[in-house]
Structure formats: structure tokens, C-alpha cells
Design goal:
The structure is a single chain. It is built from 22 helices and 16 strands. With 536 residues, the protein is of the alpha/beta class. The chain folds into three domains: 101 residues, Phosphohistidine domain (Glucose Oxidase, domain 1), CATH 3.50.30.10; 102 residues, PtsI, HPr-binding domain (Enzyme I, Chain A, domain 2, Orthogonal Bundle), CATH 1.10.274; 280 residues, Phosphoenolpyruvate-binding domains (TIM Barrel, Alpha-Beta Barrel). The chain has an eight-stranded mixed β-sheet with strand order 1-8-7-3-4-5-6-2, with helices on one face. It starts with a strand and ends in an 11-residue tail after the last helix. The chain binds phosphoenolpyruvate and magnesium ion.
Length: 536
């Protein structure tokens, strides 16, 4: 029986016939030059509008983050800058329209790639829009997810956000991709839709199999006969909305949010508060720094649904994978190791002071507001931030532990702040020297890696000695099998995508503290991630 191993990024087991996502388009020819250049250029705008309309139609049939991804992609298809650049390439040097679109998009992609980080991730979206417009101009089927007539296992090299956003859980039994990492769009959206998914599964496109059996927990993909078995609905009703173990030991279950819509979804899912409000999502589209009043309003919209409950607002985590248009990008050979997170604030203290005063002002929504800083490396940095935050009138101040040095200096850092929150996404990336966006090194970014868990244990122990809370707000917190391990290590809160809350809450309610401690001991002592005895 052929069995491939990738990285399980969305839990559940399912089996079904294979549907392969159409391969990318071949580069369109650059000749012969069209006879009527004006007429040829005139085809581009309508083709782009047709693509945008189709994407908008699909957006109307879905909701939430799926809709926003499709709306963004539709807007990209209609971007007059892209259409005009392509029209110019028809006029001079006389390219056929499909080739002109291809090259114009290529210029955009090169610019995004040069910008690096978060913008570089958008190159996939531009390529997706390019392919749709080119296919429209050529009159061929666009690449992407085929129309599914029966429940299927979707297999692809990678999925564009627009593809993943439109996936119908009733038709898509599971998703397997050759590329992608645990924080890729495919992973996050598959998790949000409850579709089992395995990424970074090398060789899956080469399998000539009638069906596949996918285990999104173990990260395995086996050849099957094409019969169907769906993953089954995730249990939602067993969690009563209070984070605690079977013996009553409390562990706060919080949500990660980036917008008011996320905050409302978090309330609906029963979050006891917000453990990570990624404020950079309020800045991403801004071409200039938002005013304090605008920031206050954006923060208040997120805080308001959590009146009377704890909300941890993270200050701007700009740089690296999240460059901001209004902050000139430094020319850094290694942006993930460069001026990002709190390091931006050292260069621009005015910026963080304005943000802190906007956050302090938004506290009038009634939420119990704390702030925390991203990318803190030393106790001196933690002190610098804590002083500024307290001067701005915010009483409760914490920092993220996502740089290995900060985990090693947790005791000294905790002496400066009121709490810490472990960002396992970056902590794993830095401790394993493995880019968190890269499928090829995804296995190293597995939150079950014992070396990562040992650092987590170190932080939890330092916090418990200091008598201060320590939580996890990276993707590790969303794994129901890992949650008891994290509780056993002594963490006091877990913050996650709100879709994961019921499963994590249910998993914790089924074990007592002694069992959690045993699991933690086993997982930390394991030789490798697979060896953790109660991994699944
Ligand atoms: C993390 O690094 O784990 C984290 C929660 O922050 P982000 O994913 O926003 O970098
Ligand atoms: Mg981080």
C-alpha cells in the first residue's frame, strides 16, 4: 500500500476519489503580432471584468474569510493598473493580449517579490488572477479547482487563496498539496472549514490512484479504491465555554483575531477573551499611518464585543512577512532576522507611542485591555516596552516569547512584565532556522518538536516561579491533541483561531492535570515529534 507523508495541518480522516486541480497555464506565445493593436488591447479590460465578475459571484455564495479572500482577488482582477500595463504592452511592442497580460502581471509579481515578506506572499494571488484573465482571453478552462460533481479528495501543487476560499466542505472531503507550510492559506482556510488537509506532501501529484485516504492528524496520504468516507462533523456541543480540565483546573481558552468580524466570530464560538489581537491587520491596507482617532476606532470595534473580558492587544508586528506601506522597507538580506516587530518601535518610538495611546483610549469599550509586544529578545527590551505602555496608561503589560533568546531569558523578562505569551509559529521558525512559510522545511515547524516543547516548558516554569501567567498564542494552541501537553507544561491560557475552540475545549475537559503532566513529560522527552506517545 503506497503511503506518503506530508504535514497534517487540518485534523480529521477522510477517503474518496481524487480530483486534481488543473495545472498551471503554459506561458502564452509572444507572437505573431496582432493585426489590429487597438482591437487587441480592447479585449483585455472586458476579459478582466468577466474574471472579476465571476469571482464576485463566487464571493456572494460564501461568507466570512472565504468571502473576503474572493472579494480581494476580484478587486485585483479589476485593478486598472494591471489592465493598463497590459494594454500598453499590446500597443508597444505589439504583443498578443494574453502575452501582454502575462508580462504585465510578471512586472507586478517581480515588484512584490522584491518587496519581500508578506507582500511576496501575494505573488501567488497575482499569478492566480493573471492565469484567469489569460485563460479567458484564450478561451480555455482556467486552472484551478474543477467543478466537483461528487465528494472528492482535492489534490494540487498548491492552492490559490481564491481556490481554497471557495471550497465546499460538502464536496471536498480532504485537501492534499505538494507545496505549502503549516501557516499557508491552504492550511488556515482548510482548518477554518473543518476539511482535513495535508500539505508539503511530495509525490502526491505523481500517484495514479483512483482514490486517497487522508489523515490530517498524522499527515499521511494512502492510496485507496475511490470509495467515500467523510471526516464527520466536528463535535461542538461537548464544550461548555469554560476552559478547564476534567478536575476543574482552569486554563483560559482565548481567540486570535485581526478584525471586528473575527471578534464577533470569537464571541459566537465561546472565547473567554482575546489572547492575541494582531493589530497589524488594521494597518495592512493603509498607505499612510492611520491617525490615533482611526486606530482607536478600529481597535474599539474589536474590543467592544469583549466588554468585561480580557483582551490582549499586540502592538504593531511590522516588517519581515508583514511590511507596511507607510514604513519604508529597509534593504535587509534576511528580513525575518531584521528590523521587525518591536525593533521597528526602537527606530520609530513616535509610532508606538501613538499606537499605545490609541489602545489606551479604546479601553473605554469596557474590555479588560492588556498590551503585548512582538519579537522581544531581551529583558531590557521588555523593560523599554513596559515603561512606554504604562506611561500611556495601560496597566497590564506583557511580551511575546517568539525569539529563542527570550525563552532562555524568561525569568529576567518576567521580572519586567505582567505576563508572557508564547508565539510558537515564530519560536519554531527561529529555533529550527526553518522559514515558517516554506513547505520544504514544514516538518521542522511542527509544534510537537520536542526541542520547541522544551523551550515552552522553560518559559512555563519561569512563569510559574514568578507567579505570573504564561500562554501560547501560536498555531500550536489550536491542536486538540497538543492542548493537554501545553496544560501539563503549566501554561495558563491557550489562544487560537476561534474555529478550533470547541475541539480544544472538549479535549481539555476530558483529561485531568495529572494526565496532562504525564503527556507533557512524554512529549518533551520524545526523541522526535512522531515518538510522542499520545500525539493523536
Ligand atoms: C507566532 O509567531 O506564533 C504568533 C502568534 O505571531 P504571528 O503568527 O502573528 O507572527
Ligand atoms: Mg510571531
Amino acid at each position: 500500500m503506497t503511503c506518503l507523508r506530508g504535514v497534517g495541518v487540518s485534523p480529521g480522516r477522510a477517503r474518496g476519489p481524487v480530483a486534481v486541480v488543473a495545472a498551471e497555464l503554459a506561458e502564452p506565445a509572444s507572437g505573431p503580432a496582432p493585426g489590429d493593436l487597438v482591437a487587441e488591447a480592447g479585449r483585455i479590460g472586458p476579459a478582466a471584468a468577466t474574471v472579476a465578475a465571476r469571482l464576485s459571484d463566487r464571493a456572494r455564495s460564501v461568507s466570512g474569510d472565504a468571502r473576503s479572500v474572493l472579494v480581494t482577488t476580484a478587486a485585483m482582477a479589476e485593478d486598472p493598473a494591471l489592465v493598463r500595463a497590459a494594454e500598453r504592452l499590446v500597443a508597444e511592442p505589439g504583443l498578443p493580449a494574453p502575452r501582454a497580460v502575462w508580462e504585465a502581471a510578471g512586472q507586478f509579481i517581480a515588484a512584490l517579490r522584491a518587496a519581500g515578506g508578506y507582500l511576496a506572499e501575494r505573488t501567488r494571488d497575482v499569478a492566480d488572477v493573471r492565469d484567469r484573465i489569460v485563460a479567458e482571453l484564450l478561451g480555455v478552462t482556467p486552472p484551478g479547482v474543477p467543478e466537483l460533481t461528487a465528494p472528492s479528495v482535492l489534490v494540487a501543487r498548491d492552492l490559490a487563496p481564491a481556490d481554497t476560499a471557495g471550497l465546499d466542505p460538502a464536496r471536498v472531503l480532504a485537501v492534499v498539496t505538494e507545496e505549502g507550510g503549516p501557516t499557508s492559506h491552504t492550511a488556515i482556510l482548510a482548518r477554518a472549514r473543518g476539511i482535513p488537509a495535508v500539505v508539503a506532501c511530495a509525490g502526491v501529484l505523481g500517484l495514479d490512484a483512483p482514490g486517497l485516504e487522508v489523515d490530517g492528524n498524522a499527515g499521511t496520504v494512502e492510496v485507496s479504491d475511490g470509495s467515500v468516507r467523510a471526516a464527520g462533523p466536528r463535535s461542538r456541543q461537548q464544550w461548555d465555554g469554560v476552559g478547564k480540565l476534567a478536575d476543574g483546573h482552569p486554563i483560559k481558552l482565548l481567540a486570535n483575531v485581526g478584525s471586528a468580524a473575527d471578534a464577533r466570530a470569537a464571541v459566537a464560538a465561546g472565547a473567554e477573551g482575546i489572547g492575541l489581537f494582531r493589530t497589524e491587520f488594521c494597518y495592512l491596507a493603509a498607505t499612510g499611518e492611520p491617525t490615533v482617532a482611526d486606530q482607536r476606532a478600529a481597535y474599539a470595534a474589536v474590543l467592544a464585543p469583549f466588554a468585561g473580558k480580557p483582551v490582549v492587544v499586540r502592538t504593531l508586528d511590522a516588517g519581515s512577512d508583514k511590511p507596511m506601506a507607510f514604513l519604508p522597507a529597509a534593504d535587509e538580506p534576511n528580513p525575518a532576522l531584521g528590523v521587525r516587530g518591536l525593533r521597528v518601535a526602537f527606530q520609530r518610538p513616535d509610532l508606538i507611542d501613538r499606537q499605545l495611546s490609541a489602545i489606551a483610549a479604546a479601553a473605554d469599550t469596557g474590555a479588560e485591555v492588556s498590551v503585548m509586544a512582538p519579537m522581544v529578545a531581551t529583558a531590557a527590551e521588555a523593560r523599554w516596552f513596559a515603561e512606554r505602555a504604562r506611561t500611556a496608561g495601560i496597566a497590564r503589560v506583557g511580551v511575546m516569547i517568539e525569539v529563542p533568546a527570550a525563552a532562555l531569558a524568561a525569568t529576567e523578562i518576567l521580572a519586567e512584565v505582567d505576563f508572557v505569551s508564547i508565539g510558537t509559529n515564530d519560536l519554531a521558525q527561529y529555533v529550527f532556522a526553518a522559514d515558517r512559510q516554506l513547505g520544504a522545511v514544514a516538518a521542522l515547524n511542527d509544534p510537537w518538536q520536542p526541542a520547541l516543547l522544551r523551550l515552552v516548558a522553560m518559559v512555563a516554569e519561569a512563569a510559574s516561579k514568578a507567579g505570573k501567567p504564561a500562554g501560547v498564542c501560536g498555531e500550536a494552541a489550536a491542536d486538540p491533541a497538543l492542548a493537554p501537553v501545553l496544560a501539563g507544561l503549566g501554561l495558563t491560557s491557550l489562544s487560537m483561531n476561534s474555529v478550533a475552540l470547541p475541539a480544544v475545549g472538549t479535549a481539555l475537559a476530558g483529561v485531568d492535570l495529572k494526565a496532562c503532566r504525564d503527556r507533557a513529560t512524554d512529549a518533551v522527552a520524545a526523541a522526535d515529534p512522531e515518538a510522542a506517545p499520545r500525539r493523536r
